Amino acid sequence: MKILINYQHYWPENFRITDIAETLVTLGNDVTVLCGLPNYPKGYVLDEYKHGKNRIQERNGVKIIRAKEIGRRKGPVFRLLNYWSYPHYAKKLLNKLDRDFDVVYIQMTSPIMMAKPGIEYGKRFGKKVLMYEMDLWPESLLAGGISNKSLIYKHYKKVSTKIYSSCDKILTSTKEHIDYIKKLSGCNNLDIECLEQYGDTVFEEANFKSVDNGVIDLMFAGNIGKAQSLDTVIKAASILKDDNRFKFHIVGSGSELDNIKKLANELKLDNVIFYGQKPIEEMPNLYSLADAMLVTLEDKSYANMTIPGKVQSYMASGKAIIGAINGSTANFIKDNNIGYVCPSEDSVALANLIKTLDIKELSEIGKRSKEIYFEKYCKEKFFAKLINDLKELSNK
User: Fold this and answer.
1) Nearest CA among 118, 134, 99 for reference residue 167
2) Co-location of 207 and 156 in the same domain
3) How confident is the model at residue 104 (pLDDT cuts 50, 70, 90)?
4) What's the structural domain count of the chain?
5) Residues near 79 by Cβ (< 8 Å), separated by ≥ 6?
6) pTM as predicted
7) Which range, of 142-151, 232-241, 379-388, averages the lowest pLDDT?
8) Domain that holds residue 316
9) Which of 306, 356, 309, 351 is nearest to 331 (CA)?
10) Same-domain check for residues 81 and 109
11) The CATH number of the domain where 87 resides is what?
12) Tens digits of per-residue pLDDT, 73-88?
């Protein structure tokens, strides 16, 4: 198949779409990615992509076409400009793209407006559109403190409904998202199915060795934003700061990293280590330090319907999962018996849960976690489903 992928982010930004595109190539497909200019997470466009440079590239068999984009920087004004600049400039490139793509694949996280160029291409040239939805809109606006009664929310509810209803098929990352989307006006008859995320290839292929250093090492890895509620981990670490059995490792970056570091400093914690953002290739070595992995989200309706992609990477790594989390992720961990959970945003409950952990038991849970991952959620199974759906649409 000749596939056009539309997603605002791409290599060298660290997003799953790069692995998806390159894997589609290895499976015999011709893949072109329409994306923006690398600026995440720091918010400033990389120098090698400014002033029209590197707008057309090729990497590992994937053709990359980059639209102009305003960097996220800091503050709501630049965030809004970033959200709208990509779809605006990407749509201006559509007539310059090949017109013989068999199907359009849209990866959708926030903001949902990033899907517009792919949908417009499908309409303009009569191509079917498959969306893989990973971030629920307009519900995700609640993460930014926007009320569901506000005019902003109501506006983006209309925008989201129009975008969802313009797709020929939608795959969601959790089952709960299906009902939410179908309840939006005009979306009830959409073709929607669930396809859980898979762990990054580097985690599937890595061999992790467990080293007993007398400490239970707990690691959080991923984006550090408001939605991740990482202050819950820091406050739990504070409760346990005089207990030398536990150490906390924080890997990643994001809009809340500075605030989280500030909180750790104010609490005078020496049991928390920050590593910053690391290339995906370095993550297996860092994961080797951990006896269990942490997942946290704030207690909001959108978060309670979400399973972060890191969960499958944790499983592929053969790690037990400790969650301060509600809803879909809590149920996922309990149903698969791959760790322990306590309520979202409850640092006391998290600290008390951590006190009960046994390193040998965590190792056994980790082995089971990896087995279940390859049985149900691995990359091979993900692409078998994705390829089948893309082919079905391309033949219609």
Assistant:
1) 118
2) no
3) very high
4) 2
5) 72, 73
6) 0.85
7) 142-151
8) 202-377
9) 306
10) yes
11) 3.40.50.2000
12) 887 788 888 889 999 9
